[in-house]
From TrEMBL, chains A, B:
It catalyses: a fatty acyl-[ACP] + phosphate = an acyl phosphate + holo-[ACP]. Belongs to the PlsX family. Its EC number is 2.3.1.274. It is found in: Cytoplasm. This is Phosphate acyltransferase. The gene is plsX. GO terms for biological process: fatty acid biosynthetic process; phospholipid biosynthetic process. Keywords: Acyltransferase, Cytoplasm, Lipid biosynthesis, Lipid metabolism, Phospholipid biosynthesis, Phospholipid metabolism, Transferase. InterPro entries: FA_synthesis, Phospholipid_synth_PlsX-like. Pathway: Lipid metabolism; phospholipid metabolism. It comes from the Bacteria. Homodimer. Probably interacts with PlsY.
Length: 345, 345
């Protein structure tokens, strides 16, 4: 197996990327790496080149580049070349900690969509109080979503949760403003109908934003706009909470003692709320595994993201999505009868 | 001034409602109260009837009633009669801690919309880390919103923030998935254009969900679906946080000591994150002040909600909205030129 890595993306590139790749190469003897980026800078950190091939390029996509334009113009950017290696069959998956929008555009334009999936979706794994986590998609802030897109997101999340997260019969839920079937806006009402009537995955109905961290589902489906709002609300609230906690804990002698007692627990609590602990965000719907590592990834996070990519290749996540989409299980019963589709799961 | 109160709405009705009204009647000598509900049950708690008139009715709207149907069928419900008193000019404002959807329907069907406001909006005041708070609307989970609705929401929130929250030149922001002008879905992009070009209030641009608790704006405008998602995400994250904190604090002897040191601060922290501390949610866009008190309101919360209603009447919030809408300040420059509107603020 070969994994293509953009060495130049993220806040700590190329150092932490290179260190993470070396760690993964030492651990996973079945994986070879193609490392794209500035050879001189990469070699500063690349102490061991075993199963690691460096492909030099001067160009890179910046975090503030306009995604689509950058991908179209910077054809030699490290991120674009990594995706091109996948497209050309030289690598099985690619990862980057760089510009999220650009990676989505690269996946879409360079690697290409899976037939039958209308819109790719970005899917991080988010925390629950139980520590189990759940896959949420789309968080790519795609502009306008249609009900069919949400139907397809459910399938992709379900395959991933089952194959990589090893959850049997993952519970797939629709994010909505109430749990009743009749709740929601036009998009969620119509998506509910489609999801209820398919046979490709285990749809468990609506969930509310208030409950998503309480382990109510393994996969939660929403449009990119709403998903972005919810994710940032969670981040913002957690941030506000920690800043208030900190103010409290430094306020007076007794509190400082309490703080010293609680330091370890608070650090654990912060880690529990930090979704980067659960690995990178997968770009589902393209023809190979593409994973976005967190922009602030250190070597350990890059290592986890590589393991995630390796799992996706080994467990044939993309192939399973392709097969499921082709099988017609996403269609409602009557549609399938008309089309003579099969229905065993 | 007269305020109509639904004595039968909320988890603690009628007891806490009656106690709250008595407290307000004792404090505000300029206010009289019309209290609608079951006379026998109300009189159990109504020790002092000074400036309080009880109007008996057997009917009430339940928390799980389907809002629109309930309002149309239960014409003698305490909530509906309270609104009817406002419509008939017998009261200046009404409040209820009951079914939110039903109160919105009551406001709309019984009291009626302000001319030029296409859609009413429900607006609670939400917490910031600074303790200042901000008005957010719409959180009524109205189905589909149009850009013009968001434009109007901005005006109503701004008038309220200025008159009742005493904030000079309130900063009105649009909730979006990025701060740049070009970000968002079709709705937010078009709303941004309208808000940028009006002269009725101080539009400061987009804010992200991540930052809303950091005192970035005094009024934050969004559609009801997104608003509901964000509010519930905040609630859910705060809830998850407190449950994890509690688990930590009861985990081992040292932590229990720390917990005892921090008890007061944690209670304060919880209060800071609890938006019911900031009063009830206003239903803007109807022809009189209508306020939804939190369903779990105690007497103190009811008292606060009454003070809020009194402020809205005294400061002529509704009248100001009516005047502003009629003035044409919401229109863009060129529209106004065509219509010959005035433009001084």
């Amino acid at each position: 197996m070969k994994i293509a890595v953009d060495a130049m993306g993220g806040d700590n590139a190329p150092k932490e990327i290179v260190l993470g790749v070396m760690k993964a190469a030492a651990q996973y003897k079945d994986v070879e790496f193609l490392l794209f980026g500035d050879e001189v800078k990469i070699n500063e950190y690349l102490a061991d080149k075993t199963r690691i091939q460096v492909i030099h390029t001067d160009e890179k996509i910046e975090s503030d580049d306009e995604p689509v334009r950058a991908v179209k113009r910077k054809k030699k950017a490290s991120m674009v070349l990594a995706a091109q290696a996948v497209k050309d069959g030289e690598a099985d998956a690619c990862i980057s900690a760089g510009n999220t929008g650009a990676l989505m555009a690269t996946g879409l334009f360079v690697i290409g969509r899976i037939k039958g999936i209308d819109r790719p979706a970005l899917a991080p794994t988010l925390p629950t109080v139980t520590g189990k986590g759940f896959v949420m998609l789309d968080l790519g802030a795609n502009s306008e979503a249609k009900p069919e897109h949400l139907l397809q997101f459910g399938l992709m999340g379900s395959v991933y949760a089952e194959k990589v997260r090893k959850i049997e019969r993952p519970r797939v839920a629709l994010l909505n403003i109430g749990t009743e079937e009749t709740k929601g806006n036009d998009l969620t009402k119509r998506a509910f109908e489609l999801m209820k009537n398919q046979e490709a995955y285990n749809f468990v109905g609506n969930v509310e934003a208030r409950d998503i961290m309480m382990d109510v589902a393994d996969v939660i489906v929403t449009d990119g706009f709403t998903g972005n709002m919810v994710l940032k609300s969670i981040e913002g609230t957690a941030g506000a909470f920690f800043s208030l906690m900190k103010m409290s804990l430094l306020n007076g002698f007794k509190n400082k003692i309490a703080a010293s007692f609680l330091k370890k627990d608070l650090t654990e609590l912060k880690a529990k709320m930090d979704y980067s602990e659960y690995g990178g965000a997968c770009l589902f719907g393209v023809q190979a595994p593409v994973i976005k590592a967190h922009g602030s990834s250190n070597a350990r996070a890059i290592f986890s993201t590589i393991r995630q990519a390796r799992d996706m290749v080994q467990k044939q996540v993309v192939e399973t999505i392709v097969t499921e989409v082709a099988s017609g299980h996403l269609k409602a019963e009557q549609d399938k009868a008309n089309q003579g589709g099969t229905k065993d799961e």
